[in-house]
Amino acid sequence: MRLETTNSNAQFATPATGIITSKSGTNALHGSLFETARNNAIGIAKVRQNPSNFAAPHYVRNEFGASAGGPVRMPHLYNGTDKTFFFFAYERYSLRSFASELVYVPKLEWRTGDFSTLTNSAGILQTLYDPATTNSAGQRTPFAGNKIDPSRESPLAKNILAITPLPTTADNPNVTPNLNTAGINNSTIPQYNFRIDHAVNEANKLYLRYTWIDQNQATLRNYPSNSAQTIAGAGFPDGASGAQVLLVTTISSALGYTHIFSPTFVSETNLSQQWFQQYFVGGGDPTLNYEAALGLPNNFGEVGFPTINGATMPYGGTQFNYKENQIISNIDENLTKVLGKHQLLFGGRYRHERFGYLPDRNGDTVNFGAYATANLDPTTGANYSGVANTGNGNADLFLGAASSYSVNLNAPFVHYRDMEFDTYIQDNWHVNKNLTLNLGLRWEIHPAAQTHDGITESFDLAKKAIVIPNPISFYVQKGYTTQAIVTNLANLGVNFETPQAAGIPQSMLYNYNFNFGPRLGFAYTPFDGRRGTVIRAGYGRFIYPVPVRNSLKITASNPPFTANYSQSYISASQSPDGLPNYLLRAKQAVVAGQNSSGVVNSATTTSIQPGVTFNTLDPHYAPDTVTEFNATVEQPLKYNTVLRVTYLYDHGANLDQNNYYNNHPSTYVYEAANGIVPPTGQYANTATGPYDQTTYGGNYISQKSGYSNDNALQVNLQRLKKNGYAFQIYWVYSRAFRVGGNTFRDSQLYPAANYLPGVLPGTDLSTLNRFENYQIDSAIPEHHIGFNGLVDVPVGRGKKFLGNANWLVNELVGGFQIAGTGQVLSQWFQVAASNWGTTNPVQVYKSAHAITDCRSGVCRNENLWFNGYIAPGTIGAATNGVSGLPSGYMPYEAPINNVPGTTNYGNNNVPLTLKNGSVVQVGYSAGPSGANRFSHTFLQGPINYNADLSIFKIFPITERVNLRINADAFNAFNIQGYTNPNTTDGTQNFLNSYWTGRQIQLTARLSF
């Protein structure tokens, strides 16, 4: 095996390459058997998130297998000695375990309607109002003592709370996690490998390889945030929500042929194919119709648990399943020719990819918010917002007062076809004994991917039209959509056009046939090699093809191939009076689980509301590229050591990024710019769009405008093994910045209309993108120190201790070796940028200021890592307060309203005068990413370190048979490490460990 991390030559497509060479064996039979075991009975150590009465959770991990190789001999039929060889291996990885994590669940008293302890992190009671008392002015009476009569609990709440785990601590979940749960983490992965080699003659050799891998994994879903899986109850199985199962099968095969034309000319031909299938599905029983049992809308008979949002515990459901099948075929021809001082490598590749994709299901959804139990604030005028610190999603769920319901008709199974043609030439020129030049060029041709039956779309910005490859009648006839959906879209103003009318290719994407990747490098030994110094440098450009999951498949989830139907009680477009937040202003009419199953209308050609969203690809969807430069100086030193210093620069281009060109501005930005409140009525969901005001919602185009830069310094000191020991230690300093490259997760590009005047430095794409998104890539640590070593234990025959030991003693205690590896890591975190009041310089205290934090109702010792925002009403408070803050503490940012006891305490509401002279209260926001002065502020978090140790020995049994025994300790010293602080208040608690607790692993390998 050879790993290349930089300077890969033109034969290889990417800069980091693993080159694995396998052979069948010799004329003798060789093989091995091994078993590796870890379990909770041996060395599973405690971590911080484990409860005080910790008992190691169930953990059984086994890796075992066997392999054999040798000549093919069939008595009386065939003798493959010196010609035909086989290799076969079987191995299996099995894990049955539970992993601890801290999550949020509703308090016990909240589940019975007692919300008298419902306070936020500032210690402010969230007052609940009774929607049944709503008068004509939208005003309500608060529930006495903040308690709701248990008889008013909705059927949905009864079922949901019955399957919600109980808390394990007394913490307020609005402040701190209150459930320590052990989530399932199981895997089973068997693997079969077979290879046969045949030497036709000295000049011609063949091989055939076959691999089969199955994977079955069950874990917590932890999406959109960490959450426990539900428990069995109310007739529902365990794991109805919160668990997931991943099923993967990978089959690969390869046929290779090597021909030696002459000692200086060799050809290698490889044909390979991979069959891959992946199915991602929910846990519990995802085939049940949970919505029918819960009394929720399910217009299309979807199975699985729906998504229920807004309460303390998120219920992500199981209607997220997706499936992928792929067949990837490669033909590689690699030739090597030596001409004097030149080693020429040249050849090419043809790659053909076929994908079948079931796009992620969009789950039916029920949303709860602070509406039915909030009270209308008259000062907000026509914005119709609630009084600050009134209402709560948990209380709305208890009453069954959902703010919206939605159901989905999901996308069909889609087939894609893609291919690639590559050719390359590489000249490794040994100029003289001190200088070698590496000169190469790779040319890649990437034709546009093809979609079967044209289940794809583009968007014509100039004409506001949806571009589809076939007439819309074609999709109706094929069953990919319905005429009702098409008519509904037409009624909304959606227009369809052909690629020809849009001026783009029929495939909806352009070919990229001229992708060139130059590779340049040299190795030079100055001083005529007398001092051993070596100087190396390299430059290369590498091309990455477009991934299907992040690109091609997204358009299949658009209308008319899908449809979303909803009933909202807060959207003005569906309100009986055409005004927003009807649920805040009127009595509750629908109780979830009681009379909610038929609230969503999907039967008419007006059921789909204005604001349909289309997510499309830019037709100019170029492959990603990476440009890399590095320079290295290597110098041998005394004591068999070598020092190596490397500078490495990487630049990524054409990274994917979502451009939300029709993203609606915040209410404040719209009202400040226009002097009116947002329009209401039918077009309430579309009227504030900067691109379109009647038809479309928050459309985005996935485009290739992202880029990244990384400057890194690597220092490596290595000692080769001598006198019984060897070691390596290295330090990597990296400053990585990025825009895009992470699909929908970050780096969204928003239009200039989303910002207040004067905020942006410019509105051209480059300036806007840099202002909004160019920032540190927090996934790459700034400092990374790694070290590893090997030591012969000086005990046993010929060693310092017991050097004259007899055979038995030597076998028992002699000949052992100890190996170790470890690392030191820094970590970044991005401070919150959500408040718009007074600001102060950021002060980083790290562990210099210990505080006592009682805001959750449980007092804990913590560190104030930096001067985050802690509500002034909790500072020094006798109960539920924070004490021990440094003198002169001032938060780096605070909300505009920061005076305890005032109506809007803790928020950013401000009065805004409209054109008509009226004044409304509205939440201030100057714009999305980049507008807040702390939008791109990153700080260094705690530095963590750990080490793994292994002791092992090879016991010779016979001349051809030996047994190797290993005892490995991962995180040998059970170092806990420290997680990043809270990015808002700056507090660092000690509830979680950064590292996994120590685990001890035993391995035995018999080789023959």
Summarize the structure.
With 1008 residues, the protein is mainly beta.
The overall strand count is 46
Question: How many H/I helices?
Answer: 10
* Major pleated sheet: 22 strands, antiparallel, barrel
By secondary-structure content and strand pairing, the structural class works out as mainly beta
Q: Give the N-to-C terminal Cα separation.
A: 21 Å
Rg estimate, integer Å: 32 Å
Tertiary shape? globular
Helix content: under 10%
Work out the strand percent: 35-45%
Identify low-pLDDT runs: none
Overall pLDDT score: 95
Organism: Granulicella sibirica
InterPro entries: Beta-barrel_TonB_sf, Oar-like_b-barrel
Subcellular location: Cell outer membrane
GO cellular component, one term: cell outer membrane
List keywords for this structure.
single chain, 1008 residues, mainly beta, 22-stranded antiparallel barrel, 4-stranded mixed sheet, 10 helices, globular
Would you give an account of this structure?
This protein is mostly beta strands. It contains 10 helices and 46 strands. The strands form 9 sheets. The chain has a 22-stranded antiparallel barrel. A hairpin with a 3-residue loop joins strand 5 and strand 6. The two termini are 21 Å apart. InterPro entries: Beta-barrel_TonB_sf, Oar-like_b-barrel. It comes from Granulicella sibirica.
Write the SSE topology.
Layout: E1 2-4, E2 17-19, E3 30-39, E4 59-71, E5 73-74, E6 78-79, E7 84-103, E8 129-130, E9 141-142, H1 155-162, E10 179-201, E11 204-220, E12 243-262, E13 265-282, H2 290-294, E14 307-309, E15 322-339, E16 342-358, E17 365-367, H3 393-399, E18 404-409, E19 414-432, E20 435-446, E21 450-451, E22 458-460, E23 465-467, H4 472-478, H5 483-492, E24 495-497, H6 499-502, E25 512-524, E26 534-544, E27 563-568, H7 582-585, E28 615-617, E29 624-637, E30 641-659, H8 667-674, E31 700-722, E32 725-739, H9 765-773, E33 775-776, E34 783-792, H10 807-813, E35 817-825, E36 828-830, E37 850-853, E38 860-864, E39 882-883, E40 909-913, E41 919-923, E42 938-940, E43 944-956, E44 962-970, E45 987-988, E46 999-1007
